[in-house]
């Protein structure tokens, strides 16, 4: 039987989005009938995915292994992990399907003669120098016949092709969403969910979920909260670490904002569903905004709630096909604030927007199946009989 090896530099105990995608994809690959293993940097003993099921909501039991690395500096840590991955891979069957999001790891694996799916999520890094070196590494990697690239948006593929990469070696697979969990949550009334989460029953809730780092537009939300301080509105901000939350709390001039801090991904569907309006105040200063396609897009769509979103190409390429969305020009704060009340005063906007049928193409299971089909077709291999999805 083919084994799927997912090699990641993610911290499964962190609060970033990366480990969520890793765990959800591993769970979805397990649905297809393949054996799945995750490999991470570290000196821990192997563990089972069931030990993290409460955090990520995974159903299957797959192995999480650790490859020792030396973490003196970040760059050096990744290189030692890549070298460790190289030697680990020498013991793997040639039929092993290897997936990684790290270009250095992928480069070492193809040197070991392995076929690799390299999943790419960004075209940019914070500085020009880092970005240039990163693109040079990716271009060198993609010259190898034993690697193909998966990008998470059409826009991201376009950026790489315009930079000289071969279009025939790049495939698009947007991020995914746990439709089963959102479908289950949709059966509950909002008041039931709010009571369970300790949120006000009679307020109209405007919710943002995600990182609180620079460029996410949290200032827009706080300004909107101040503008609507005499309305029956509650602004719910999910995510962030204490230092970020305290920074924004010090800027508050109204008492209609709640910061939840980090919430385990398995609980996010309940928070999103119990809101009335979901907002995405992303700004252009987010380094990866051109080409990125965050999981938040798909989780927002699956919630059934109305969405206020900026018109970034990689967002729009997905969201344009769904109802219940108002787009605004990024960084137009006046428009952002105005549309909040405009939407909440519209009874049709507050209805349940059932997007589940269209979202089937963005489920984690569909994405896993798509990646496997890409793998077998690109490398001209026969699909195994037990490929059951």
UniProtKB/TrEMBL annotation:
Residues 22-180 form the Glycosyltransferase subfamily 4-like N-terminal domain. PANTHER family: GLYCOSYLTRANSFERASE WBBK-RELATED. Residues 190-351 form the Glycosyl transferase family domain. GO terms for biological process: lipopolysaccharide biosynthetic process. One of its GO terms (molecular function) is glycosyltransferase activity. Keywords: Transferase. This is Uncharacterized protein. InterPro entries: Glyco_trans_1 (IPR001296), Glyco_trans_4-like_N (IPR028098). The keyword Transferase applies. Coiled coil: none annotated.
């Amino acid at each position: 039987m083919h084994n799927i090896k997912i090699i990641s530099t993610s911290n499964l105990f962190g609060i970033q989005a990366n480990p969520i995608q890793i765990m959800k994809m591993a769970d979805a690959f397990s649905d297809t009938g393949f054996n799945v293993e995750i490999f991470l940097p570290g000196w821990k003993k192997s563990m089972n995915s069931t030990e993290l099921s409460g955090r990520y909501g995974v159903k299957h039991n797959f192995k999480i292994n650790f490859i020792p690395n030396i973490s003196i500096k970040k760059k050096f840590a990744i290189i030692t992990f890549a070298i460790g991955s190289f030697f680990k891979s020498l013991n793997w069957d040639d039929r092993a399907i290897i997936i990684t999001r790290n270009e250095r790891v992928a480069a070492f694996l193809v040197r070991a003669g392995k076929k690799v799916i390299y999943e790419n999520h960004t075209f940019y890094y914070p500085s020009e120098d880092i970005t240039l070196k990163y693109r040079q590494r990716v271009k060198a990697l993609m010259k190898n016949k034993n690697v193909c690239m998966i990008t998470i948006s059409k826009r991201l593929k376009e950026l790489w092709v315009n930079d000289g990469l071969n279009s025939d070696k790049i495939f698009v697979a947007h991020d995914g969403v746990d439709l089963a969990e959102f479908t289950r949550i949709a059966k509950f009334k909002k008041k039931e969910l709010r009571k369970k989460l300790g949120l006000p029953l009679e307020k109209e809730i405007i919710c943002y979920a995600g990182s609180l780092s620079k460029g996410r537009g949290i200032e827009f939300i706080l300004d909107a909260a101040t503008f609507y301080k005499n309305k029956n509105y509650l602004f719910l901000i999910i995510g962030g670490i204490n230092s970020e939350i305290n920074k924004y709390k010090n800027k508050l001039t109204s008492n209609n904002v709640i910061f939840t801090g980090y919430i385990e991904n398995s609980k996010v569907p309940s928070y999103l569903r119990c809101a009335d309006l979901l907002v995405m105040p992303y700004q252009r200063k987010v380094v990866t905004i051109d080409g990125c396609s965050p999981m938040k897009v798909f989780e927002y769509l699956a919630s059934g709630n109305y969405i206020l979103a900026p018109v970034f190409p990689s967002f729009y390429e997905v969201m344009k096909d769904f109802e219940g969305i108002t787009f605004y020009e990024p960084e137009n704060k006046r428009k952002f604030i105005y549309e909040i009340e405009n939407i909440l005063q519209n009874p049709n906007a507050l209805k349940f927007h059932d997007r589940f049928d269209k979202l089937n193409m963005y489920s984690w299971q569909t994405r896993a199946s798509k990646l496997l089909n890409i793998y077998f077709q690109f490398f001209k291999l026969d699909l195994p009989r037990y490929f059951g999805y």
